[in-house]
Amino acid sequence: MAVIATPGGNYASQAAKAATTTIPIVFGVGDDPVRLGLVANLARPGGNATGFNMSVAEIPTKRLELLHALVPKAVRIAMLVNPENVPVAERMLHDVPQAARALGLQIQILNASTKHEIEAAFVLSSSAPTHYSSASASNSSRLRRVTEFQQPFPLARRPKLAG
Fewer Cβ close by (within 10 Å): the C or N end of the chain? Predict the structure, then answer.
């Protein structure tokens, strides 16, 4: 084998890196390659791996900022995260609450790795009082849908989530 290409993301790239130290690896990841352990640093990756970062790690906080700008009356916001995608989940659990505090928002991060967890998140959010409804720009008493997904499982359920 001459080269391993892993455009599929973090897990495939980390698996390739763990599998060999001699075959060159070209990766495409959505998180910091240094943080993922793929390269020593960005300027001089070293080792047998090089590639690019699609900078998706900052997207959840940017989406929160955009939502706040679009709907400034929203006070409480829920975001769904797949805890099985550890790098994204860790980043969201660290970065999103900080961004929410800076914007004066209350954030609720709910697990959504299975159909049951997604349904439970909507039951929880629809029964919670004093939430904002993303379904309209009015001052509603309940949160309906604010989602954050970067994984195939929830993306396949967009019709229910957009409902």
Answer: N
pLDDT higher than threshold 70 for residue 12: yes
**Of all helices (H) and strands (E), which one includes residue 29?**
strand 25-29
- The reply to whether the predicted model has a pTM over 0.85 is no
Arithmetic mean of pLDDT over the chain: 76
Q: Decide the pairing of beta strands 4-6 and 25-29.
A: parallel
112 and 80 in contact (C-beta within 8 Å)?
yes
Question: 38, 14 in Cβ contact below 8 A?
Answer: yes
For residue 120, give the amino acid letter: A
pLDDT of residue 115: 83
Q: Where are the domains of the chain?
A: 4-54, 58-162
Contact 151, 82 (CB under 8 A): yes
Contact criterion met (CB below 8 Å) for 112 and 154: yes
Nearest to 143 by CA among 121, 118, 111, 113: 121
